[in-house]
Amino acid sequence: MLHTNSSLTIAIIDDHPIVIEGLQKILIRDLPIQEIQEYHLGGDLIAYLKNTDKKIDLVLLDITLPDISGVELCREIKNISTDTYVLGFSNHNDRSLVMQMLAHGASGFVVKNASASELITCITEALNGQITFSEEIQKIIAKPSASQLKSIPPLTKREKQILQMISDGKTSPEMADELQLSLFTIETHRRNLMQKFEAKNTALLIKAAIQLHLI
């Protein structure tokens, strides 16, 4: 579903006001913005989310904050507001950090030296339920370290197809409709994939598939 057809509420968390000011100009210029919320501390956003019914569509999250780690803040945001998308936004391009963010529910990661068009593309893809990365992060993800390599579990053609659809953000009913399969069959494939990758949730499944260059 395209969320960018309607007005968006986006929160920016960064402890550098000049960064937020620059981001605001880009977002207002290129997206249908209803409101941009500005935070310098992670705790302030958590307090807001706990005391409002108003939805934040997407959070641009700096990984290095004075009061809380970006990974922990991502986890808390997703626990409180499961429908809010989170994009890591940082100078750091450490592969393990990116994977930790994905494991805690982030929709992707953008480095601060990315172009404005890259940023808007990543935001749009995240709002459509996709896992997304800026170009620099894509290159890092494509080069796993030796310690991260492991045997690829044998997958059927259908499992590979469903794995790709999961990474594209498709729901089980959407996959069932598109593939003309029963919902039970789709859920069975999902369970089999989780078992083969030893993944406890969808984020960890996608993380494992990315590491193995399967998506």
From TrEMBL:
Keyword Ubl conjugation: no
Single GO BP term: phosphorelay signal transduction system
Domain Response regulatory, chain residue ranges per copy: 9-127
SUPFAM superfamilies in the cross-refs: C-terminal effector domain of the bipartite response regulators, CheY-like
Annotated ranges, domain HTH luxR-type: 148-213
4-aspartylphosphate, modified sites: 62
UniProt-listed InterPro entries: CheY-like_superfamily, EvgA-like, NreC/VraR/RcsB-like_REC, Sig_transdc_resp-reg_C-effctor, Sig_transdc_resp-reg_receiver, Tscrpt_reg_LuxR_C, WH-like_DNA-bd_sf
Coiled coil segments of this chain: none
GO MF term set: DNA binding
Pfam families, per database record: GerE (PF00196), Response_reg (PF00072)
Keywords, comma-separated and alphabetical: DNA-binding, Phosphoprotein
Protein name as annotated: Response regulator transcription factor
Organism encoding this protein: Xanthocytophaga flava
